[in-house]
Amino acid sequence: MAQTVFITGAVGGIGRSLCQVFKDKDYFVVASDRIGANNVVCDDFVQADLEQFCQVSTYRDQIMQEIRDALQGRELNALINNAAIQIVKATDDLTVGDWHTSLDVNLVAPFLLTQQLLPELEKASGAVVNIASIHAQLTKPEFVCYATSKAALVGLTKSLAVDLGPRIRVNAICPAAVETPMLLAGFEGDKNALKNLASMHPMNRIARTEEIADVAVFLVSGMSNFMTGEVLNICGGIDARLHDPV
Predict the structure, then answer these.
(1) What average pLDDT does range 207-220 have in this prediction?
(2) How many angstroms separate the most distant Cα atoms in the chain?
């Protein structure tokens, strides 16, 4: 029987590549997003609002049943917590609601999914990969909610690895800028700004979505069996570079 993976945030750029790359590796892929499947490559799809998933227990129970129905009694080899929300606002403008939304989707949902799917993961000696962000370490103005939630996700990754080892493995990926449709749309009509962003990375480009997915496949494979609690920066060297004038 094929190995199984459950991937959240499947409709976004990284999510689509995660689904495609895992499918190419012959995984049985169950995908999820807040909006419909929209041509996502997967074996089954569960539409779920992760903010509501965190806040309403009856809704959470319903979604968990839909996930288990999609798994069709299979063990779960991998859980990829990829879904995220990015609220970009100055400190003066942030609301309590912004904080609740950010923390629910980016932190509480990955915890709850890991907790709820632990029986299926443990049967398979499975692995969790949390898609965090370089913003967990290096950030910029107006990313207070997002950066804080991703830093907390890194902390959750390490804590779960300690608490759940050797039952399952838990690791995280921290990408820098990634060539998603959403990012590219933000630079539409300003190629110089996109080129400047690329130049901030020592590799002089931003990441491709499949490069993030390839690392996720590695982290759930037998090649990383002694890795847990690890946080991998996939950032083209931006975490090693000073941005003083040169």
Answers:
(1) 98
(2) 58
